[in-house]
Amino acid sequence: MAITTLPPAPSRADPANFSDEADALLGALDLFVTETNAVAAAMDLNDTNDASSSSVAIGLGAKTFTVTAAKSFQPGMSLVMADDAAPSTNLMVGNITSYGGTTLIMNITSLLGSGTKSAWTISQSTPLYLITTYMQTLLDDETAAAARSTLGIAGINLMHGNIRVNQRDLSGAVVLSSGEYGHDGFRGGSAGCSYTVNANDITITAGTLEQEIEGVNIQAGEHVLSWSGTAQGRIDGGSYGASGAVTDTLSIGVNTIVEFDTGTLSLTQLEKSSAATAFQFIPFADELAKSQRYLALYHPVFPGTNTHMSFGRATGTTTAQIYMSLPSVMASYAALSFSNLSDFRLVFGTGTLVTPTSLNVIPNARTLIAGITIGLGSAVLTAGDLIEFKFNSGAGHLLFSAEI
């Protein structure tokens, strides 16, 4: 309702018209008061709230309610229609399409709950769009797989699903025994695995290749396994099947094993869904960072001899310790492996170089610091001496492993 504009106010600068304008202004005040009170009444909560006993099924789209006449409902206004018996779990939200007499027609855009209700509380609302159970069902449904992919709503990928993180620098034909790891994250199955590395995938020629996913990365609910290639896959020892047809209900915090038999394989993905979506590519740097929770490789920055690795202290005449920063907190206490002892040198005093006879990890490498005890074959050190540990070969490397 609009308020009629008041006449111009009288002014002493216009004495000739002052009396007429004053009379007009005073005469208009009665109507002004009436219209102002009508607007105030229209803005009152009681004129934008109501109740209805119409029997209406909870759903989207057009819904008709019988309401009180002469309310201040306007087309486009947002309303919440809540079930009196369960207003927090059964409700509909939408905009008024039309209102006349006692008929209110709504366009429902969001909802919670289900069923047909016949006792409604109607109240004005700001525009509201709910992530409802209904919408979540759509997101989980097979017909929504493309939308989930576009929106980036996916579950977890297998670590290095496109099999390109390769800290062990494997190439050509790879032969793994049972439980032995090859490309980062992947290991031989119960009968081992043989595979060849191609430009864009691998070909499993014998046995099976599996990956164990740490329980902290598992969401509870139905999951689907998908991949590209001719290999068949399975989850936790179930039946083998084709890509997108292998599903299982997983439990949060419980490790899960996915496994692939002979054939070509790439773009492996496990996600919390009933239907597979497009493979989610992850930048290589992010994939490497994920891998370093389980495997951390150290090798010379520059090829050749006498490349610095770390400083430390002698702990006795034949032992010393060094400490190294790890790129990630590892999944468990790390085991240490290395190329050859001849690939390393310990430097002390005025530059004397000695080849170590042993390297052992200090068992605290679940932190961001890893310690190594270095053993020597002869008593040449003094406890407390500053020492330097170096690579003596460009092929030398240290490997900290916390693979599951």
Q: What do these coordinates show?
A:
- The protein is mainly beta and 404 residues long.
- It has helices at residues 18-43, 45-48, 133-140, 145-151, 284-291, and strands at residues 50-52, 56-57, 61-66, 78-83, 91-100, 103-112, 116-117, 120-124, 173-176, 187-197, 202-213, 221-228, 233-235, 246-250, 256-260, 263-272, 295-298, 307-314, 319-325, 335-338, 344-348, 352-354, 358-362, 369-375, 386-391, 398-401.
- It has 4 domains: 1-43, no CATH class; 48-124, Thrombin, subunit H; 173-281, no CATH class; 295-401, Sandwich (Immunoglobulin-like).
- It is 13% helix and 38% strand.
- The longest helix is centred in the N-terminal third of the chain and has 26 residues, at 18-43.
- It is elongated and about 120 Å long.
- The mean pLDDT is 88.
How far apart, in Å, are the first and last alpha carbons? 72 Å
Mean pLDDT: 88
Q: What percent of residues adopt helix (DSSP H or I)?
A: 10-25%
Low confidence ranges? none
Strand content: 35-45%
- Secondary structure class reads mainly beta
Q: What gross morphology would you assign?
A: elongated
How many domain modules?
4
Number of strands: 26
Number of helices: 5
What is Rg? 37 Å
Largest beta-sheet details: 8 strands, antiparallel
Task: Give a quick set of tags describing it.
404 residues, mainly beta, Thrombin, subunit H, 4 domains, eight-stranded antiparallel β-sheet, seven-stranded antiparallel β-sheet, 5 helices, 26 strands
Summarize the structure.
The chain is mainly beta and 404 residues long. It has five helices and 26 strands. It has helices at 18-43, 45-48, 133-140, 145-151, 284-291, and strands at 50-52, 56-57, 61-66, 78-83, 91-100, 103-112, 116-117, 120-124, 173-176, 187-197, 202-213, 221-228, 233-235, 246-250, 256-260, 263-272, 295-298, 307-314, 319-325, 335-338, 344-348, 352-354, 358-362, 369-375, 386-391, 398-401.
